[in-house]
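Run log, item B.
One chain of 161 residues. Sequence copied directly from the ordering sheet:
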Amino acid sequence: MLTIIAAASENNALGKDNDLVWHLPDDFKRFKLLTSGHYIIMGRKTFESFPKPLPNRTHIIITRQKNYTVPENCIVVSDLNKAISICPENEENFIIGGGQIYKQSIEIADKIELTRVHTSIDADTFFPEFDTNNWKLTEKQHHPKDEKHIYDFTYLTYIRK
């Protein structure tokens, strides 16, 4: 199963200057819970935005750069199809960004785990528009803003129809 996981604002903003545009600790915890022990597919810029590889996950980095070197437990490929072909077939595998990789995978993904952040924000990277007629919303959980979270947000789980 191929699952896209992302946090996007109401105007689909994901990030700016290769960084997130908010700090949502509970969303980070959910991301870790869902992706730990799995293969995670990302673009090079997303990978480079991490201080170090995320623990307990196999990283697949998509880049056109030849001889791109990565730490142990990371795999480099040249395109999305190669990335998917490396993943275990009978497991949930995650697309974690960035914007171009989401755009390339939105038509082939089986599931979307979207954290909808209830704000509109200035960004340079966006989550792609997707036709909700092709998806069934199976879970919805609202999280109000609080002392640790500057924005309200809602976890949305979509399964392809």
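Observations after the first pass:
- The chain has a mean pLDDT of 96.
- Helices lie at 25-35, 44-48, 80-86, 99-105.
Flagged for discussion on Thursday.
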